[in-house]
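Protein in question filed below.

…
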Amino acid sequence: MVNRFNRLTSKEWLPFQKSWFKYESDTKLYSDNLRFFCKAEPSEEKVLYFGRNFDLVSSIGKELKIDVTTEDQYDGPLQFALIDLRETIQGIKDLSEYIVLRDQVISLLGKVYRHMIHRRFVCILMPNLQLENQYLPLAWDMAMQISSMYSLKDEKIGCLNLHDENQVESTRKDVFYSLYFRKDENSTGIYSPHVHNLLNSAQDKKIESQRGPTNHVPAWFILKPAPRKKNEILHPAKYPEELVLMFIEKFTDKDANILDPMSGTGSTQVASLKSGRNAYGTELSSYFAEIATNRCSELIDPQAPELFANKMANNFAILNKDARLISSADFPEIDYMITSPPYWDMLNMKGAENQAKRIEKGLQTNYSESDDDLGNISDYNYFLNDLIEVYFNLLNCMKPGSFLTIVVKNIKKKGRNYPFAWDLASGLMQKVHILPEVFWCQDDINLAPYGYGNTFVSNTFHQYCLTFQKPN
């Protein structure tokens, strides 16, 4: 296939498609973006740069024979716009300063819209921001606002300062976002404010306890879980017990009550029991509920005791029940909740490579066929609102000041980007406080050449671990 999009070979194209990267230097960051998003042939179409490193970007452009210009100097067509807000955001002292900056970016992108070549990209580099004990998801807000003007196409996560720590690679430093937008048939260049709760909640809701969260959980980590066992692989979307263990040990003490309202094959409960916590949950599918119960029973009362160093002494209960119907009478008061909901109806999408492999092996490809299953709701907004209501109801089962962690990712479906993680956070922030997000970065999946030669489509290899606190 001929590459008409940029000057990269297929071998060079693939690494850029990974949705997270280990940051090395600004030089590499800028160079990688210019090489990927600028046309293959020499062009009179310029690149617009907005930020504090124009001299560096300009010098990289000269090496690549790309003309880089500023907001004051551009004229004629633009093939790429690179907006670097990282340093500016880090210097912000209050929310009003961000609003001024956001308005400046919106104004700039409105002016340059008619100069942008059709189906070419805008990249915004920026982090979220911690101000004292308030967390401001500024990058999510910026993406939502700009998406009214340009199509929100993708994101990549820049991960800083890698080091090894007990087989989990992690950093306590920050991360930043590379947000990608495109001028295309679905964009207008006209700004329309996007209403959400991401910043409104941050103004008047503060974290009331700093137990464990931001200064003990790494900002990102690479986790290589053990291979799934025979009964675990039956579930189409299992998440690893190693991940659960990392969070419950940070947020709870021994004998705490842990809940997962969408238990699957029992990853949360098994990890909880192994770490000396009580494990509770519900599962809509009777098939998976039985598997989860059997796995926990084997820990509590093993049929082959000689294979287990210690018999578990904690309690567990997994109910075959719709998570919508959970009440405070079902379980003891909950100290911590960790769960991973359905990623909308993505498991019902036909043709996905992973789905084909599961069909070939005779494995189940979705959660269930039940009309009550959230994963079978086809309308995104209905799905999102139902899920938010599930979590609001579960707050009634949780202790004041307790934490909940939800493992999710943003969704690409039929060429459109749905910011599921951000939308879910926005909805929940009506009633809970948000903590800094943590990224589970996956490094053991093969890259696929999506969009090769035509456009940018990343391989989504990062998942959000969103943590919230119930007010006291």
